[in-house]
Structure formats: structure tokens, C-alpha cells
Amino acid sequence: MAGRFAPTPSGRMHLGNAFAMLAAWLSARSRHEPIYLRIEDIDTPRVLPGADRMIMDDLTWLGLDWDGEPVYQSARQAVYDAVFERLRSLDGDALLYPCFCSRAEIRAASAPQEGDGFLVYPGTCRRLRDEDRDEVERRLAAGRRHSWRLAVPGAQEPSAFVAFDDLVYGAQSFNVGRELGDVILRRSDGLYAYQFVVTVDDLLMGVSDVVRGRDLLRSTALQIWLRGQMLRTGLGSHNLPAADPQYAHVPLLDNAAGVRLAKRERSLDLGRLREAGVRPDQVIGYCAWHMGLCEGVLERPEAMSAQQALNLFSWRKVRRHAGDVVVPGNIVEVLRAL
């Protein structure tokens, strides 16, 4: 098996990123398996120059090492192009279709999923493809701006249901037709979308241990379904662990107002914490405590190295502490007191 760090270089890592990175590292190292570093810089407009170096510096500061050279998605365009063409030709071009809808049109025709505002595409251009292929060809010939969408099974089709077992949150089941819909694989500006590139990379890099935040539970169902289509094209092998990874989604860290930490909140990024005199063992100790690793060992959080956290690690402990963590406003003082 093999794990991976997969940061987006859109800013400095924050405490929540460190929490998830530590969990990924502990999972891989507890089995004496490799963990790779993949810089997810495919969305070039969001990339902050130099953020990749800051991420690597922060990982090293925390004591979280990786195997091999970092892999940059921006250098894998030819790989993505080849896989995209494989999918386009699958089932007589039924799997992908061009979408000419604007964002405003999609918002107007869609109903958000309850609770999170996620918009499921209403299928406008899929119906156009099925009912009037000549019109689709005319629009393409005229150079109409378009993205490319993945045609997932309809909500009533048995193949729309995807189930998997998460090491933290247990049995999961999603209807990809109802809960995710026909997601974009290539944007109208030509850039490939997250769901596509992460599935390609995990499969081809041999990643079989996927650890990340619980906000991506639903995306996992889509990626499992999409991975199945890629395997059908002959990409990868059904017999390798990466064809059927194990998943662990970890709790999120929220700020004092209950809002998930984001890179735009620089007050909680590792650069600010380091400038304030916070040590790496204090960050590791805080994260390990909130993962539940100190259960039955310590009565309060204490500073510790990544190796010391590794000696305490088990997914069974994390499973018993699956609630999100609220980071107090005085986190610098909390950390420095460890």
C-alpha cells in the first residue's frame, strides 16, 4: 500500500491541513509503507507562487517526510489528455458530453443539496446530446465555449449507488446520480477538474491509502465510480491495491466561530504560528490529542514529535474521536503552553 500528501499550493498550510497531513503520514508509516507528495497545482489561477516550497518546508518542520520526488500535476498534462481521450471513446462517446451552460444558468436551474449548498447539474446539455446531436455538433463547429461533463448513472439506476467503508466514519453509501450529478471533468478554459485529476493520479501513482478531511466523503463516491470507468479503458489493473483503496476521512478543524479553517485565514496558518514562537512538537501534540491518540495515556495534550505520535497511533482511537475540532481564538497561547 502507499499513501499520499496532496496539498493545493493556493496558500500556506493551516492547522487543519497539518492535522490531515499528520493523519496521512501516521497511516502510511504505521504500516511501514511509502507516502508520496503530490502538489495539486492543476488549477493554475489559484496557485500562489512559492506556496509549494512553503508547504514542503512546513512538512519538514513538522517532521513529516515523504518518499521520492514531489509530483506536480501541472507537469502531467499529457497524462491527463491521454486518459481523457480514453474516456471520451468509451461506450461510443456516451460517457462524456460537452456542456454549453453558463454558471448563472446552472444556478437558476439547480436545487442545492440540503445543508451544504452543493449544486447538482440539472442535465440540460445531456438532454441536448441525447435529443439533438446535430445541434451539439453545430455549436461545437461554431466554436461555442464549453466544458466537458461526466455522464453518471441516473438516480434510479442500480449502478448509481456507490458504497465504501471508511476507517473513521464507517459504512458510507451515496447515489452519484442524485447527490453529485454530472460533474465537470474539463473546464471551459481547458483546465482539468479536481475530481478527474485526483482519480487519475491516485490510480497511476499506486495510491491505496487515501486520508483526507471528512468534507470529501461524497467526492469519494464519485471518484470510486470514475475509477471504475478508467479501469474499463485498460488504465491500471483491477488486481493492484490502487484499484480499490482504503479510505479514512478525518474530522475538520473549525475556527472559534464554527467555520472551517481556510487558507485565507492567515491567523491560523503555520507561518504565523511559527513566527509566534510555536514549536513543531506543540502542533503535533495538539493534533494528536484531538485525534484521540493520547486516550488512556495522557490526561491533557502534551508536546510530542511525529515519531512519538506514531507510537500511539491507531485508526480505532481516531474513530472514537470523529467530531470536528473547534480551534480557540487564543490558539497560540494554547499551543505554547504545551
From TrEMBL:
The keyword Transport does not apply. Belongs to the class-I aminoacyl-tRNA synthetase family. It comes from Bifidobacterium animalis subsp. lactis (Bifidobacterium lactis). Residues 4-288 form the Glutamyl/glutaminyl-tRNA synthetase class Ib catalytic domain. One of its GO terms (cellular component) is cytosol. This is Glutamyl-Q tRNA(Asp) ligase. Keywords: Aminoacyl-tRNA synthetase, ATP-binding, Ligase, Metal-binding, Nucleotide-binding, Protein biosynthesis, Zinc. InterPro entries: aa-tRNA-synth_I_CS (IPR001412), Glu/Gln-tRNA-synth (IPR000924), Glu/Gln-tRNA-synth_Ib_cat-dom (IPR020058), GluQ/Sye (IPR049940), Rossmann-like_a/b/a_fold (IPR014729). PANTHER family: GLUTAMATE--TRNA LIGASE, GLUTAMYL-Q TRNA(ASP) SYNTHETASE. GO terms for biological process: glutamyl-tRNA aminoacylation. GO terms for molecular function: ATP binding; glutamate-tRNA ligase activity. The keyword Electron transport does not apply. Signal peptide: none annotated. SUPFAM superfamilies: Nucleotidylyl transferase. Pfam families: tRNA-synt_1c.
